[in-house]
Write a structure and sequence with these properties.
Blueprint lengths: L32 H12 L3 E2 L15 H12 L1 H5 L47 E3 L4 E3 L1 H10 L13 H13 L8 E2 L16 H11 L1 H4 L6 E2 L3 H4 L2 E3 L17 H11 L13 H13 L25 H4 L3 H9 L7
Parallel strand pairs: 1-4
Antiparallel strand pairs: 2-3, 5-6
Helix pairs in contact: 2-5, 6-10, 9-10
Length: 340
């Protein structure tokens, strides 16, 4: 399938193979508004290839199979391999008790980030370097991984680009891209577009829906279900959605539109974009409830999205609104443009 790109991944990882065919700018280069719009146009005009995932059984045929499998382990067992309680303090990169697969859903073969519209990793090596609105710079795959380490993974620390762990994650991403068309986009990447209700989201209604559909796994108040070994390794059977063990307020999932799309396409457990359990409106209200729960604060949040023209509508940073409480509340709960 070859069509114009209609969806750019809002959240997720991206890689830097075939770099200069995607971006004329260098990684780390700061862009002005005109250059940023040029980069966005480049991505929107890319061709879209069919969804494809290599077979897990073929990993052992690769010369770097051990490295690829370590990358898989890091993404699937993040808490146990690089979490805040691992024995080796030098490996404590993640700052909370989420695994990468808490958001980057495993597909039918059990590989991290291989679920359509589950914020997949499948095509990441064809997507970057790319423009990052959050910093107005060109980012690398390593930048994107480390953005998650310090946001989605709480107050973690960056992995050095030349670390064994970073190389393993990139090796897995590279293997996932095997057989794809270089530079092209792909179907079902990121999260699906949805028609949001023409109203503000309702956290109270969301709490009732959460109690009906979500509490069995994520527990009351989004506290998650801890394993028997939590005291030793910080692990959960079902991830927390609030508190210090969950994503902080600088993460992509802290934004209500992103959370709505994710919940609609992937939750509760077993739902897919083809067979959703929750309507968009229900997901919208549940997202509002989840975002209303307490969570850690990202220290540099006010520095995000320095150009107002490139800020997402659903990122409620008080410094953006100069005391305008109504505008801040709208950024928290909407209403937003219906097509997102």
């Amino acid at each position: 399938m070859k069509t114009a790109l209609t969806l750019i991944a809002a959240v997720g990882f991206s890689g830097s193979l075939f770099a200069m065919d995607i971006s004329p700018y260098k990684v780390g280069e700061k862009l002005n508004a005109e250059q940023a719009k040029e980069m966005e146009k480049r991505f929107k005009e890319r061709q879209v290839q069919d969804w494809q995932v290599p077979k897990a059984a073929d990993i052992d045929k690769e010369p770097n199979a051990k490295e690829i499998r370590y990358g898989i382990q890091l993404l699937d067992k993040t808490v146990e391999t690089v979490g805040p309680k691992v024995a080796n303090p030098n490996l404590r990169y993640s700052g909370n008790s989420l695994n990468c697969t808490s958001c980057h859903i495993k597909g039918s073969d059990g590989l991290p980030g291989t679920m359509p519209f589950g914020i997949p990793f499948v095509n990441v090596m064809n997507d970057y370097p790319n423009f990052r609105k959050r910093s107005m710079t060109i980012g690398s795959p390593e930048d994107r991984v480390n953005g998650c380490m310090t946001r989605s993974q709480g107050g973690g620390k960056a992995m050095p680009n030349d670390s064994t762990e970073m190389k393993a994650i990139i090796a897995y991403f590279t293997w996932l891209a095997k057989g794809t068309n270089p530079h092209d986009a792909m179907q079902y990447i990121g999260l699906p577009n949805v028609d949001l209700p023409n109203r503000a989201a309702d956290p109270k209604a969301g709490k009732a829906l959460y109690t009906e559909h979500c509490v069995a796994c994520h527990q009351a108040n989004g506290q998650g279900l801890k394993t028997a070994t939590y005291g030793k390794d910080g692990s959960y059977t079902f991830p927390p959605l609030a508190g210090d063990d969950s994503f902080n307020n600088g993460a992509g999932m802290s934004r209500i539109i992103t959370a709505t799309k994710f919940i609609h396409a992937n939750m509760p457990l077993g739902a897919t974009y083809k067979s959703p359990v929750l309507s968009v409106g229900q997901a919208y209200d549940i997202a509002a409830y989840v975002e209303s729960l307490p969570r850690a604060t990202h220290p540099d949040r006010a520095k995000d999205f320095p150009n107002p023209d490139f800020r997402p509508a659903d990122y409620p940073v008080p410094a953006y609104f100069n005391g305008d409480k109504a505008a801040l509340e709208k950024a928290k709960y909407g209403p937003f443009d219906s097509k997102k």
